[in-house]
Specification:
alpha+beta; five-stranded antiparallel β-sheet; 3 helices
Length: 141
Protein backbone atom coordinates (compact mmCIF):
# COMPACT_ATOMS: atom_id res chain seq x y z
CA UNK A 1 0.00 0.00 0.00
CA UNK A 2 1.30 3.43 -0.93
CA UNK A 3 1.25 6.19 1.73
CA UNK A 4 -1.29 8.97 1.30
CA UNK A 5 -0.64 12.61 2.24
CA UNK A 6 -3.31 14.04 4.55
CA UNK A 7 -3.83 17.47 6.15
CA UNK A 8 -3.84 16.32 9.80
CA UNK A 9 -3.33 13.14 11.85
CA UNK A 10 -6.29 10.88 12.56
CA UNK A 11 -7.06 7.72 14.48
CA UNK A 12 -9.42 4.89 13.56
CA UNK A 13 -10.04 1.94 15.86
CA UNK A 14 -8.38 -1.21 14.52
CA UNK A 15 -6.01 0.59 12.14
CA UNK A 16 -2.27 -0.10 12.18
CA UNK A 17 0.06 2.91 11.99
CA UNK A 18 3.73 2.76 11.04
CA UNK A 19 6.51 5.29 10.84
CA UNK A 20 7.33 6.34 7.28
CA UNK A 21 10.73 4.97 6.28
CA UNK A 22 12.40 6.80 3.41
CA UNK A 23 14.36 4.16 1.53
CA UNK A 24 14.14 1.45 -1.12
CA UNK A 25 11.12 -0.84 -0.92
CA UNK A 26 12.39 -4.43 -1.07
CA UNK A 27 11.15 -7.97 -0.77
CA UNK A 28 13.64 -10.36 0.80
CA UNK A 29 13.42 -13.95 -0.45
CA UNK A 30 15.18 -16.78 1.42
CA UNK A 31 15.22 -20.36 0.18
CA UNK A 32 17.80 -22.36 2.11
CA UNK A 33 21.12 -20.57 1.71
CA UNK A 34 19.91 -18.53 -1.29
CA UNK A 35 18.78 -14.97 -0.55
CA UNK A 36 17.60 -12.27 -2.93
CA UNK A 37 16.66 -8.64 -2.28
CA UNK A 38 14.28 -7.53 -5.03
CA UNK A 39 13.02 -3.95 -5.52
CA UNK A 40 9.47 -2.96 -6.42
CA UNK A 41 10.66 -2.61 -10.04
CA UNK A 42 11.96 -6.20 -9.99
CA UNK A 43 15.66 -5.30 -9.82
CA UNK A 44 17.94 -7.61 -7.81
CA UNK A 45 19.86 -5.60 -5.17
CA UNK A 46 21.42 -8.57 -3.36
CA UNK A 47 24.99 -7.71 -4.43
CA UNK A 48 24.46 -4.08 -3.50
CA UNK A 49 23.53 -5.02 0.08
CA UNK A 50 25.52 -8.19 0.85
CA UNK A 51 25.46 -7.57 4.62
CA UNK A 52 21.65 -7.54 4.57
CA UNK A 53 21.55 -10.72 2.50
CA UNK A 54 23.88 -12.41 5.02
CA UNK A 55 21.71 -11.29 7.94
CA UNK A 56 18.58 -12.69 6.27
CA UNK A 57 20.45 -15.88 5.37
CA UNK A 58 21.27 -16.37 9.07
CA UNK A 59 17.58 -16.42 10.09
CA UNK A 60 16.55 -19.86 11.36
CA UNK A 61 14.02 -20.63 8.64
CA UNK A 62 14.49 -22.48 5.38
CA UNK A 63 11.85 -20.51 3.45
CA UNK A 64 11.08 -16.88 4.17
CA UNK A 65 9.64 -13.91 2.28
CA UNK A 66 9.74 -10.52 4.03
CA UNK A 67 8.38 -7.23 2.75
CA UNK A 68 10.26 -4.17 3.95
CA UNK A 69 12.37 -1.12 3.27
CA UNK A 70 16.14 -0.71 3.03
CA UNK A 71 17.15 2.55 4.69
CA UNK A 72 20.09 4.50 6.07
CA UNK A 73 19.62 6.70 9.15
CA UNK A 74 21.39 9.87 10.23
CA UNK A 75 22.58 10.59 13.78
CA UNK A 76 19.05 11.73 14.76
CA UNK A 77 17.74 8.37 13.45
CA UNK A 78 15.92 9.97 10.53
CA UNK A 79 15.94 7.86 7.37
CA UNK A 80 17.75 9.55 4.49
CA UNK A 81 16.80 8.25 1.06
CA UNK A 82 19.52 10.18 -0.79
CA UNK A 83 22.21 8.67 1.48
CA UNK A 84 21.51 5.24 -0.04
CA UNK A 85 22.93 6.60 -3.28
CA UNK A 86 25.83 8.62 -1.86
CA UNK A 87 26.77 9.33 1.72
CA UNK A 88 27.71 13.01 2.23
CA UNK A 89 31.26 13.70 3.38
CA UNK A 90 31.64 13.89 7.18
CA UNK A 91 28.13 12.54 7.80
CA UNK A 92 27.30 10.10 10.59
CA UNK A 93 25.07 7.30 9.34
CA UNK A 94 23.99 3.78 10.13
CA UNK A 95 24.86 0.99 7.75
CA UNK A 96 21.98 0.03 5.43
CA UNK A 97 19.18 -1.60 7.42
CA UNK A 98 16.31 -3.83 6.30
CA UNK A 99 13.16 -2.67 8.08
CA UNK A 100 10.77 -5.64 7.74
CA UNK A 101 7.09 -4.83 8.13
CA UNK A 102 5.36 -7.93 6.76
CA UNK A 103 5.97 -11.67 6.57
CA UNK A 104 4.51 -13.08 3.34
CA UNK A 105 5.85 -16.64 3.53
CA UNK A 106 7.40 -18.84 6.17
CA UNK A 107 8.40 -22.50 6.32
CA UNK A 108 4.76 -23.38 7.03
CA UNK A 109 3.68 -21.86 3.72
CA UNK A 110 2.20 -18.82 1.96
CA UNK A 111 0.79 -16.28 4.44
CA UNK A 112 -0.53 -13.73 1.92
CA UNK A 113 -4.16 -14.80 2.39
CA UNK A 114 -3.87 -14.43 6.18
CA UNK A 115 -4.97 -11.29 8.01
CA UNK A 116 -2.30 -8.63 8.59
CA UNK A 117 -2.51 -9.35 12.34
CA UNK A 118 -1.51 -12.98 11.72
CA UNK A 119 1.31 -12.03 9.34
CA UNK A 120 2.66 -9.50 11.86
CA UNK A 121 2.59 -12.17 14.58
CA UNK A 122 4.63 -14.45 12.31
CA UNK A 123 7.06 -11.59 11.60
CA UNK A 124 7.51 -11.03 15.34
CA UNK A 125 8.11 -14.76 15.75
CA UNK A 126 10.81 -14.67 13.04
CA UNK A 127 12.51 -11.68 14.65
CA UNK A 128 12.24 -13.11 18.18
CA UNK A 129 13.94 -16.30 17.00
CA UNK A 130 16.70 -14.22 15.37
CA UNK A 131 17.57 -12.83 18.82
CA UNK A 132 17.76 -16.19 20.60
CA UNK A 133 20.76 -18.45 20.99
CA UNK A 134 20.36 -21.75 19.04
CA UNK A 135 19.77 -23.74 22.25
CA UNK A 136 16.88 -21.44 23.17
CA UNK A 137 14.96 -22.08 19.95
CA UNK A 138 14.06 -25.66 20.88
CA UNK A 139 11.38 -24.32 23.25
CA UNK A 140 9.63 -22.26 20.56
CA UNK A 141 6.87 -23.76 18.44
Amino acid sequence: MQPTLIAKPFHHEGWVYEEKVDGYRMVAYKDGDRVQLISRQGKDHTRRFPELAEAIKSLRFRTLVLDGEVAVYDEQLISRFEWLRQLPKDSVATPPMFMAFDCLQLDEGDLRSQALRVRRERLEYVLDRACLAPADTATLG
